[in-house]
Design a protein that fits this description.
heterodimer; A: alpha+beta; Butyryl-Coa Dehydrogenase, subunit A, domain 1; Butyryl-CoA Dehydrogenase, subunit A, domain 2; Butyryl-CoA Dehydrogenase, subunit A, domain 3; 4-stranded antiparallel sheet; 11 helices; globular; B: alpha+beta; 2 domains; 4-stranded mixed sheet; 3-stranded antiparallel sheet; 10 helices; binds flavin-adenine dinucleotide
Amino acid sequence: MLLLDSESEAQFRKEIRAWVRQAVPQLGGPPPERDWQARRRYDSAWQRMLADAGYAGIHWPREYGGRGASPAEHLIFLEESAAAGAPDLGVHFVGQLHAGPTLIAEATDEQRAFHLPRILSGEAVWCQGFSEPGAGSDLAGLRTRAVRDGDHYVVTGQKIWTSYGPVADYCELLVRTDPDAPKHRGITWLIMPMDSPGVDVRPLRTIHGDSEFAEVYLDEVRIPVANRVGAENDGWRVAMVTFGFERGTAFVRELITARSHVADLAALARVLPRGAGTAWDDAGLRRDIGRVAAELDALWALTKRNVTRGMVGVIPPAGGSAFKLSYSETLHHLSALIIRVLDRAALSMDDLPGLPTGQLVHAQLHAFAISIGAGTSQIQRNILAERVLGLPKER
Amino acid sequence: MHFDLDEDQRALRDTVRRLAEEVFPVERTRGWAEPGGFDRAAWSALAELGTFAVYQPEERGGLALPVVNAVLAYQTLGACLVPGPLVAAALAADLDGDSGAVGGGEVVPAVVVRPEPGAPLLVEHLRDADVVYVLDAHGIERLDPAALTATPITVPLDPTTPLSLVTDLPRGDQVGDAAQAARWSLLGSLLSSALLVGHALRVLDLATAHAQQREQFGRPIGTFQAVKHMLADCFARGEVARAAVDAAGVIIDEPGALDITEPGSGGGPAVRAVAAARVLAAEAALLSCRTAIQAHGGMGFTWEVDLHLHLKRALLLETSYTTSDAAAEAVAQSLQRVP
Ligand SMILES: Cc1cc2nc3c(=O)[nH]c(=O)nc-3n(C[C@H](O)[C@H](O)[C@H](O)COP(=O)(O)OP(=O)(O)OC[C@H]3O[C@@H](n4cnc5c(N)ncnc54)[C@H](O)[C@@H]3O)c2cc1C
């Protein structure tokens, strides 16, 4: 067992480090948190720089314009990017991690030739139109209807919680093409241009107060049949294929950020007055900070294990769901600690004079995004119990 | 990077498991703490496999494998509820000559961590020990067991681990310096954590099997989400703890990790990794043991079913060489150094 880099990995790390350190200063400072158009420009500028240097789609296969990096190299790339203060994927999250890999696996040559270069260069932003008001955890219960009309599908319905919807060019859209089939068998996967007539994007305010996601109303939107990926009524399988692309790296950037939040929190605890001394003098609080740091260390180790397994195949739900569930719980522990340490300073989302607390107050709400998005913690427990432990299904 | 078991490590784990199941079936080890319970033949069989000398050099009769292999072997020993001074034997094998007396099983050691003044000194396996080592921040001392004043505890919490109350602990001969003592503390904590993870994984297997087979309201209790979710939590915590413990084993193997010259300095990545592993392992083991007992209902409350043996052993291990609180404190103190 080896946690350290192999020789070739060490070489790769050196190369990435040298590049990313000189590249980041050229990008300029990040845009205001709530200005999504500016964020799109910023994330796309970085994506362009990555593409020009040959690092875009680092984990995509070479024949589709990627770098063909192994999961371990992908991990190194993410580590070095974070250490240098480079942006994460931002608005390119869906394109790079979800839509792109799905197109690679399932799309036609024409679809790939058109879309993949645009995703890699940062020109096209994608969003994911899966969830609906009536179909969240029970995603296969989705009802947005697509009716065939010549060489088009006419789509009517509503999507919700569509991240990056307000700034996206394309949507990976799940629609119901056969309402009479069993629910998993009547679904189709379509590429929807967001500027199609009949698409109405209504930004929703998140718990953070910004408009990261949206409702997307679809009123007789005409989508060419040529935009279908996979066969008609085979969309559930197509949607699930992407999960097979997850090779243990999905939460790396997240985890690095959480670890730095713990370090920040410890530093703040050392200066925030409490009683006659500081918050850090409270042994109970201090140990709880130690516990959360220990959990994040352990999750880092589990990430390395999942990445190792991702080198030889697909991460089984044992690894992925165990990670996501534990990570969600740990973030909620961290959130509670942030509140305990900051005390009334946690009431302000703005930094206070001399106290860089705004980021932590923000982070403290982020835990819910992880424990609700992409399969809630309860759904992860169902997956672990049924698919890993082999306990009987409820129905 | 390759952070997973290789073929040899799987083989080692399977060999340990086979032997543990053969010479330490639970029916036999249940009476281990009773007078005459210590089975020297079984202990020797375990030693002959190299269990206590996994990371010792060949000159000392060891297998000359990385520490992480011992960590894997100890997870299996925990899972199989193997009794005896397992961790003490691995530590004391450091002091073996070429005869490999401890590693070979001829000499049975006990290790005492010197307590805070005034705290009762309860020592496990003293009854069976041929030699006693006393560990504190300054170094390691060796004592003849007869030199200690001790009374056996008639009803130890863990019925498979004999326990004594030591009322006089004289000074012995110094056999290790502060650096060696720090090494023992770290390895002792890590191997105890490995045992804890073994318990966590084993009781989850037992609880899962029970949930599949026990029926109430006309269906297996594992159909109920309340049961499912508590077992799923145990699984997730067990996986995370296992990764932490394995990682600590790997980090300890990195060159220089155990060259701890300044005791109590807080140490480097190895100290942090071992402490983090301990926090996770103890939490996973106690959560899983408690959950498994709950999932068994009334059966879980009986002496017959093995679950209480795992819980009680886990409670013992939770305080071996460090505690969860002390480990959490060590991680907290490392936060200024390791970001
Ligand atoms: C930050 C964020 C970003 C998102 N981005 C996107 C996106 O880009 N595109 C997209 O399509 N979707 C997106 N989602 C939607 C997300 O996938 C859903 O919110 C999630 O799957 C839960 O569905 P729901 O909101 O309908 O909640 P529900 O499914 O209604 O769940 C409500 C509660 O019931 C529980 N519950 C439901 N079913 C079960 C069950 N079988 N057993 C036990 N408990 C159960 C849940 O755990 C939860 O606590 C996003 C969500 C968040 C929070």
